[in-house]
Design goal:
alpha/beta; binds zinc ion
Length: about 270
């Protein structure tokens, strides 16, 4: 079985900032419908691997998308061309990312990576758009599928605070820079990975390193869709993970965090 990743940051009402589109049009369409997302002012595609972009037609189905922001490296070229073709057919403009601050409603974020010029490491994963997000009183770092050469350069080049939530790089693969994890000290680590995937994700040593640093680890292969919400009426953030289903039923886990969360953050594999 394969795997993939799509992540939704709610921006109020039916609007959301979406990061990646997952591997299957049906799956991302179903997920966005269940969340009531009809307008996507911005879709960020962290890189062009199919497990992050092939779901794009499903995301566009019946929704208005303002723009698609992509990484700077067109690798693999056929998937980059697929994204451009699909966006053009839907009349959606495609922008190249660049480092710097952005905002959508109450969601503020900074693009930390890739830096201008040749990408450290040189592969598609190394070019993943990396975002430091502040929303709902939470600090969230989204690493895409970044590999250690780029992780190390990122750690050297960016002001990285400890984060509440880390979207672990590359589906929790074994290749994580220990120095970066030590700096981030996430309280909650999210891993998107397919059940029984052929890659062996997540790696036991990555899980061990995250837990040793004090993180609660949530993973989509065993926990299903993960939703991180911070109800405005209650201090603290709650993380809910449940087996994905249209009705949103199934097993659930909760982990409480600090801070006064007033927004919500959702993730789906
Ligand atoms: Zn991936």
């Amino acid at each position: 079985m394969g795997q993939g990743e799509a992540l939704v940051l709610t921006a109020g009402g039916d609007r959301a900032l979406v990061v990646d589109a997952g591997p299957e049009p049906e799956a991302v369409d179903r997920c966005l419908r269940s969340l009531g997302v009809r307008r996507i002012p911005l879709l960020v595609l962290t890189h062009f691997h199919a497990d992050h972009v092939a779901g794009l037609p499903g995301l566009l189905r019946g929704r208005s998308v303002g723009a698609i922001e992509t990484t700077t490296l067109d690798e693999p070229p056929d998937q980059a061309a697929f994204v451009r073709r699909t966006a053009a057919a839907a009349g959606v403009r495609v922008l190249r990312t660049a480092p710097g601050p952005r905002r959508l409603g109450a969601i503020a974020w900074e693009v930390l990576w890739p830096l201008p010029g040749p990408v450290a490491g040189g592969g598609a994963n190394d070019a993943s758009v990396t975002m430091l997000v502040r929303t709902g009183g939470l600090t969230v770092l989204l690493l895409g599928d970044l590999e250690p050469p780029a992780q190390q350069r990122l750690a050297m080049s960016a002001e990285l605070p400890p984060v509440d939530i880390l979207k672990v790089a590359h589906h929790g693969s074994a290749y994580q820079d220990p120095g970066l994890l030590a700096r981030l000290r996430p309280r909650i680590a999210l891993i998107s990975c397919g059940a029984d995937n052929d890659y062996g994700h997540p790696a036991p040593r990555t899980l061990a390193a995250l837990r040793a640093g004090g993180a609660v680890v949530l993973r989509t292969d065993t926990d299903g869709t993960i939703a991180v919400t911070g109800p405005p009426s209650r201090p603290g953030a709650a993380v809910t993970a449940g087996r994905a289903s249209p009705a949103g039923s199934g097993g659930r886990r909760r982990a409480h965090g600090r801070g006064n969360a007033s927004g919500s953050w959702r993730c789906r594999c």
